[in-house]
Amino acid sequence: MTRKILSALVMASTLGMLLSVSACNTVAGAGKDVEHAGDAIHDKARDVQQGN
């Protein structure tokens, strides 16, 4: 019985770590997308100010 519980805890911990790592990469990717969008808006605003 104890071995089954330990096995389940190890599996749950491993799954939790894998999910947290993938979530970090997803958030980092979203941050980069937002940064690129901000850069594009900034560039367009500068073009409008310069009359281009």
UniProtKB/TrEMBL annotation:
<dbReference type="GO" id="GO:0016020">
    <property type="term" value="C:membrane"/>
</dbReference>
<comment type="similarity">
    <text>Belongs to the EcnA/EcnB lipoprotein family.</text>
</comment>
<keyword id="KW-0732">Signal</keyword>
<keyword id="KW-0564">Palmitate</keyword>
<protein>
    <recommendedName>
        <fullName>Entericidin</fullName>
    </recommendedName>
</protein>
<dbReference type="InterPro" id="IPR012556">
    <property type="entry name" value="Entericidin"/>
</dbReference>
<keyword id="KW-1003">Cell membrane</keyword>
<keyword id="KW-0472">Membrane</keyword>
<dbReference type="GO" id="GO:0009636">
    <property type="term" value="P:response to toxic substance"/>
</dbReference>
<dbReference type="Pfam" id="PF08085">
    <property type="entry name" value="Entericidin"/>
</dbReference>
<feature type="signal peptide">
    <location>
        <begin position="1"/>
        <end position="23"/>
    </location>
</feature>
<keyword id="KW-0449">Lipoprotein</keyword>
